[in-house]
Structures are given as C-alpha cells and as structure tokens.
Amino acid sequence: MELDIVSLSRLQFAMTALYHFLFVPLTIGLSILLATMETVYVMTGREVWKRMVKFWGTLFGINFVLGVATGLTMEFQFGMNWSYYSQYVGDVFGAPLAIEGLMAFFLEATFVGLFFFGWDKLSKRQHLAATWAVAMGTNLSALWILIANGWMQHPVGSEFNPQTMRMEVTSFYEVLFNPVAQAKFVHTVSAGYVTASLFIVGISAWYLLKGRHIEIARRSIAVAAAFGFASALSVVVLGDESGYEANLNQKMKLATIEAMWETEPAPASFNLIAIPDMEARDNSFAIEVPYVMGLIATRSLTKEIPGIKELVERSKDRIRQGVIAWEALQKIRAADDAGQTVDEAVRNDFVINQHNLGYAYLLMPFAKDLTKATNEEIDAAAWSAVPNIWPMFYGFRIMVACGFFFILLTGVFFFLASTGKVEGLRFKGRWLLHVAVLSIPLPWIACEMGWFVAEYGRQPWIIEGMLPTHAAVSSLSVTEVLLTLAGFVALYSTLLVIEVSLMLKYIRKGPDDGGEPEAMPARTGGMSSIAAE
C-alpha cells in the first residue's frame, strides 16, 4: 500500500472500525440474553437466575465500556479525515447518527446504570424493565448506525444539489426503510446474538470441564444454545437476503465475491472454490455448484448475473456520461457565480446524466482534463472500480463456513439441553465441551469477515456510485495521519489487552453459586483452562 493520504485514511478508519466491532456484537447479544434470563428470574423467583444475570452482566459491563470508548473516535474521524465527505453528505448521513445519539445511546447509557446499581433500589419488575431498556437501546443504536451505513451502500431518498454541491434528503422514509439498510440490520444483530450465545456456551462448557458452577453453567447453555440456534439460522437466511440486495444494487460487489469474470447465463452457478488470476482476468481453477448462485442472487433459474468484465464495460459508458454531467456542472456553477442564467441545454445535459456524475470522478486520478480523457484512461478508471478478488472471495467463504458451523454446534447443544444431557458431557462427550471452548473466537472472525466484505467490496466508492473514496478525504499530511493511526492502534491494543484480562479474571472467579457445592472434574487432563491460570 502506498503511503498516500487516501490509503492511510482508509487504513485508519478500517483499524478503528475493526477494533470497535470486537466489542459491539457481544454487547448486542448479551443485552438480549440478560433480559431473557432476568425475565425467567422474575417469572420463577429462583435466585439461581438472578446470580446468572449478575455474572453475565459483569462481563457485559466490561465489554460495554470498551465498546463506547472505541466507538466515539469513529464519528470524530468523519470530520477529521473525511471532511469533504462530511460536507458532501452531512445533510443525509448526519441525521441517523444524531438520532442514534439522542434516541438510542442515551437510552442504553441511562438504564445501564440502573441495571448495575438498581438491584436493591428497584422492584423486580422495575429492574427487569431497566434491563429490557438497555437491550432495546443497544439494538436501536445498531439500527440507526446501519441505516447510515446502508445509505452509503445504496443512497436512496436523496438528490444532489448543484448550487450547494451537497446531497440533500428528499424522502426520509426511503432513507429509513432502505432495503439494504434493513437487511444489514437484521443480519448484523443476528450475528451479534450468535456471538453472545457462543460466548456463553463456551464459557459454560469450560465450567463443566472444570466441574464448577454446574447449575449456572447448564442453565446458561440451555438459554444460549436455544437463542444461538435460532439466531444462527436467521443469519444464514438474512445473509441470503443481503445477497439478493447486492445483485440489485451492488452488482460489482457480488461479482467479486463470486470471482465471476464472465456473465453467468441462467441458472448461474456458485463458485465453491476458485483461484482468481488478476492478471489474466480469469479463474485458473474453480469448483462450481450448479443453480445455487442464481437462486441466491436472483431467486430464479431464468435470470443471468453480469460478470466483472461486462460490469467494467458498463462503467466505461457511465464514465463517459458522467463527464457530460461534470462539464455541465462546471458551466452551471460558473453561471451561478456570475449571476447569469444557465443555458437550458446545459441544464438538460446535467439532469439527464447527473446519476453518472460520480463515475466522472473515477477519472480524476488518471486524466488531467476529464473532457479530453483517452480511451486508455477511461479503461483504467473503469477497472479501478473492481476490488481485489482474492480477499473478497475467501473472506466471504470464511464467514459462510463459520455460519454453518454455528448452526451445527448450537443445534447440538440445543438438542442436548432439551433432553437434559448437557451435564452428562462431563463424563461422556467431553470433546464436545472442548470444541465449544475453542469455538469462542469464531463468531468474531465471522463478524470481522462480514464487515470486511461489505466495506472493502464497496470500494472505490465511499458512497456507492456517487462519490469515490479518493475524493472524500481531508487536506491532511501523510505524517499527521500516520501519527494518529499509530496512536489509535497503540491505545486500542492496550484497551483490548485490558478488556481480555478483565474478562478472564472474572471468568476464572466465576459466578456466585449461592452455597452450591462444587463438583469435581470427571477426569484430569485435556484442556485445563481458558487461559493460563
């Protein structure tokens, strides 16, 4: 990667976002599971459920604090590193972020204090209401963030104003109910539910291996496995919806995910494994599964899916039309500055071609004068809109493989919990408990891969089809961004070490058993600890 301001700004935002999302899915999932457990406590009055809520709530609190700390800097970066982006889309993008702060963050931040300090000051039902308020606030926060992100993927309900050079909202309803945003929301929160469920199942499995906290461990597995199984199924189903939306609105992203160089006639096949060759612009090896891609992307067996090469040819046409819009825009602005009336033919040129204006900006790194761009420069600009195939192709498949594994693992534990056989794994089937412990990191890997595919696959656009990333950065020096990047990485790495250390400390300490006698491990050997004790 060249040390230019665009690459460094992208890297800084990617690093802070990836760090932040280490904490977000666990917060989203644990909040709902805590509310569910406390509901059982209020309904049954059994103290063991209260102890469960307090224990898992402690881990939730540690994670919540780190999530807030790492999330604040992300919004500041829009003004620091992406000032032209903020100026260009602030009227649209700023609204859901502001609502998230006012409606969601303040809600969860207020009631999280009542959750931790209100056990002896609130009635059972009042405390339960506070816990559900935390859960709702956490999920509402994700909703508004993903509405903003979904608009970047599919900018609906807005239009470009040539006088102000800004995007303006034309329909907040369309922004709110953007199909891409809605699909991303349900897919992302379901992934958070799976993350929290595997976290609880894995830690509870470790307690069973150690012969500690048996009553709490088996109940925790019962709740988390049921919730996780349903959520894992939802993730796969909702991922299918995301694939369908990508074919409608982000065809290049879908083509790169599938390493689909040529247009696939109906019914399109799914590349299970492939070896993309970027120089030859083809796959040197591929194993295809018939019909599957057609069903995912078009929900039919009669529609073809455009490949990368065809989409590049379409981009060339859109670049040429975008140049017409760009030239007309310069004339409109010049006339406005001079207080003159804009020629009607010029205005018509802009209106007809303005939906391709963003494609003209793709030419800027390749042509000094957009109106005199050569075919070679247009070709280079069009191919610059193709993300690197390798990380897209295999990042997506890592995520999908993890998703199906989560269905299998949570399904097995759900069955064992339903039949009362979980505790018996201490004596027979300990290998399954080891698998659960070792699987704890996998949901985070799947989540990070999902975000990588979603965001890297949008490149070179910061707003799909409207504003390229290279045109959105602030006027900063390479040194300034390098220093802040190094500072963020150092700070966030330190926070991550602190968070993991605190988590392990309280996991080793375990929940309050309320006088429950500890059982001895069924046998010695095997995995002795989550971390070295």
From TrEMBL:
The secretion signal range is: none
Any Gene Ontology biological process: aerobic electron transport chain
User: Which positions, given as ranges, span the membrane?
Assistant: 20-43, 55-73, 93-117, 129-152, 185-209, 221-239, 394-419, 431-454, 474-498
The keyword Transferase belongs to this UniProt entry's keyword annotation: no
The terms describing its cellular component in GO are: cytochrome complex; plasma membrane
UniProt region (Disordered), positions on chain: 512-533
* One MF annotation (Gene Ontology) recorded for this entry: electron transfer activity
- InterPro entries annotated for this entry? Cyt-d_ubiquinol_oxidase_su_1 (IPR002585)
Q: Name one Pfam family in it.
A: Cyt_bd_oxida_I
User: How does the protein's chain sit in the membrane according to the entry?
Assistant: Multi-pass membrane protein
Cellular compartments annotated? Cell inner membrane
Keywords in alphabetical order: Cell inner membrane, Cell membrane, Electron transport, Heme, Iron, Membrane, Metal-binding, Transmembrane, Transmembrane helix, Transport
Chief subcellular site? membrane
Which protein family is it in? Belongs to the cytochrome ubiquinol oxidase subunit 1 family.
Could you tell me what this protein is called?
Cytochrome bd-I ubiquinol oxidase subunit CydA
Q: Which organism is it from?
A: Roseibium aggregatum
